[in-house]
Every structure is written in structure tokens, then in C-alpha cells.
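>> received
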Amino acid sequence: MTELQKYIGADTDVPAGDIGTGAREIGYMYGQYKRLTGLYEGVLTGKGLSYGGSLARTEATGYGLLYMTKEMLKSNGIDIAGKTCAVSGSGNVAIYACQKAIQMGAKPVTVSDSTGWVYDPEGIDVALLKEVKEVKRARLTEYAAARPSAQYHDKAAEGTNQWSVKVDIALPCATQNELNEEDAKTLVANGVIAVCEGANMPSTPEAVEYLQANKVYFVPGKAANAGGVATSALEMSQNSERLSWTFEEVDAKLEQIMINIFKNLDAAAKKYGKDGDYVAGANIAGFLKVADAMKAQGIC
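>> returned
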């Protein structure tokens, strides 16, 4: 019996070793929640579209990352169009970050998984990547085999990663601590202008310090990857109103949310003498929001 089966019921058919929080797992847990409580209004988001889920939730974190990146660059007089991007990972965040980057006129040239990474100088073929990862659930070797322009690199055999490629923008979208100080030095040496985090804490503290010291625009995941949880809130709003918004409506709201997050952290950084330090800006803006709410409610 898997841990998920123990949690949601032993009779649930979940293959051993397939524990996660994808749409299927959310569906199982939501079903059990309704069975146990008799309530429809739930505490789970990321539900299927047929029972209260939201369009654009799958794409939200990757799309939101690019909305944040575009707005940050725009505020510094830089157009994202024409820029090359190194993306790590090949799950939802990475796939839809690549898709939105292409829509914005940028060119993602790398993706990765746990065993290797691909460099595709012609730009990542998102349709092929989705076929390999979302349909076949295969390794990136299959992407490289089907794409003549792609070069596959085995991490263990070569000791390399996607941060060795010369790009304008780095988007770590895979896992914690995947971008270390040596990677940061390589990116800086190759002329990177911005690093925006799609994963949770993918850059080590030493990497962040090095990037900032070398004037690389850096937006931490606590702000840059907020698109997923933001769209979960939009899902809750739709549930409360018994509505289902179109993809375009959700996407437009997501974009404005990410723009507002950047404006808030940028304003906080400037107000407190940390202009351009988006880590400090995100920390200060988040703290002030909580502090203001506490004061308003008489807690302080």
C-alpha cells in the first residue's frame, strides 16, 4: 500500500511509487474529502475541470514566471523579445515557461530532467516536449532522438548542466539548490542579464549573492513563481461564485497579478534604499502586507 493509498483509502488504485499532487491525486483526495465531510466547497485547488477546476491552472506557474520576467526587464528598459533563455526542468513549470517565452518572442534553448539536459539552438519544440513528457512520460533522450537540432547531454557522464550554455536569461524551474555559485559564475561569464526563479529556492544563497554582486537582475521564487498559487486563488473565486471563467479571462487576471507583484516589490525596494534588489523588495513587501493586516486587526 502506498502512502497516498493510506491517506485517501486503501481501495484506491494508485500504482506503487506514483505519489504526487497531479490532477489525478487531487481528484482522489477531493473525492474522499466530499465523502467524509459531505461538503462540496473544498480546500483543494488544482481540481479537474469537470468538478470545479480552473482553466489555465496547469500553465499558471510557467506563464506567471514569464509575466514577471517580462515586467522586470521592461522596468529596466529591456525588451524580452529576441532574448535566449536557459530553462531547467521539463515538468509543468518548465514546459509552460517555454511556451510563454516563445509567445513573447524569446527563445528557450534548454530543458532538463533528472538524468540529462537538452540544448536545442533552434529553440525548444514545445509540442514535442509535451509529447515526450506529458504523453509518453519518457526521458529527454526521446526528445533529442526526434529533433535533429537537439543535443542531449548526460549529467552523470559529462558533469555538465544547462547553465553552461550562453544565454540572456536563466529560468531555473526544476528543484531546490539546482543553481550553485559555480553555475552563477558561468552564467555571469557568459553574459546573462537576468535570473528568475520558477522553482522553490532553486538558487543557493551563494549563487544569489554572486549574481546580485555582478549586477544580474534576480527575482526570487517567492515572487516569480507565485502564478500557481495566484491561479489557485482564482479557482477558489470561481468556486465561490459558481462560475467558470474562460482561459483568456484567467490568463489576463494572472498577468495583472504578476505585474502587480513586481510593482509592489520594486516599490518596496526603492522606498527602503534597496533599488534593484528584488530579493529585499519581495521580503519587505511581503512583511509589510502581513504587518499592515495585523495592525488593522488590532493584533500589534
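>> The beta strands are 84-87, 107-112, 116-119, 151-154, 169-171, 194-196, 217-219.
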